[in-house]
Design brief:
GO molecular function: DNA-binding transcription factor activity; transcription cis-regulatory region binding
InterPro entries: Homeodomain-like_sf, HTH-type_TetR-like_transc_reg, HTH_TetR, Tet_transcr_reg_TetR-rel_C_sf, TetR_C
Organism: Salipiger mucosus DSM 16094
CATH superfamily of the largest domain: Tetracycline Repressor, domain 2
Shape: elongated
Largest sheet: none
Order of helices and strands: HHHHHHHHHH
Protein name: Putative tetR-family transcriptional regulator
Keywords: DNA-binding, Transcription, Transcription regulation
Radius of gyration: 22 Å
CATH topology of the largest domain: Tetracycline Repressor, domain 2
Length: 211
């Protein structure tokens, strides 16, 4: 009987100072975004975040030193998920359409629609949040950079293309429609957007790149 109790004890999972579990970290991220969407970053409470995740506040401070550090980690994880590489399509227009579909999938999430405007407002007031927002934007733009690289290799776009302008043009119409105006375009509307964006990339930006 004693040996059985000893065996059970040896099989127990460590607690307290145990290595942070990935599933708990994911639950904390979800709770953080829910709290942010509901109350805004300025009124966000780490105690309420912990309660939403079914954890103690110590679980947060074992991982993150502050609300800003928490936001940085959570948004970085989201940015990396958005920037995962996707298969190359046959044409620039198909690549653009595929990119718009994936961005729409992110922006149509109700939490994203409520958090992003607040994130931009906080970034306008806080240099620290501005740095976090810039890193997230860079992760998003990296995926679009790959799209431009493929287009240049195929000869669809000139090597001297104005990349900053091109990256803005790729995502700005959809972002304006969904985040600023609160509308979700249909698949057919995305196809029209992709045609217009592709035409703009090949015409206006191509001419700038050759001057």
């Amino acid at each position: 009987m004693e040996r059985k109790r000893s065996d059970e004890k040896s099989r127990r999972k460590p607690s307290g100072a145990a290595v942070p579990r990935a599933e708990l970290t994911a639950a904390l991220y979800r709770a953080f975004f829910e709290e942010w969407a509901e109350r805004g970053f300025s009124a966000l409470s780490l105690e309420r975040v912990a309660a939403r995740a079914g954890a103690g506040k110590a679980a947060i401070y074992r991982r993150f030193s502050s609300r800003l550090a928490f936001a940085d980690a959570a948004l970085s994880a989201l940015g990396l998920g958005i920037a995962l590489p996707k298969p190359e399509r046959a044409t620039l227009e198909e690549d653009v359409f595929d990119l718009l579909l994936r961005i729409r999938a992110v922006l149509r999430h109700p939490l994203a629609r409520r958090i992003l405007p607040d994130l931009h407002a906080e970034a306008a007031r806080s240099p620290e949040m501005r740095a976090i927002n810039d890193r997230l934007a860079e992760a998003r733009r990296e995926q679009a950079q790959n799209l431009l690289d493929r287009a240049v290799r195929r000869g669809d776009l000139p090597e001297m293309i104005d990349r900053d302008l091109a990256l803005d043009l790729l995502v700005a119409p959809l972002y304006w429609r969904m985040v600023v105006r609160g509308q979700t375009p249909t698949r057919a509307e995305l196809m029209v957007q992709s045609k217009a964006i592709t035409a703009g990339l090949k015409a206006s930006i191509g001419d700038v790149g050759r001057t």
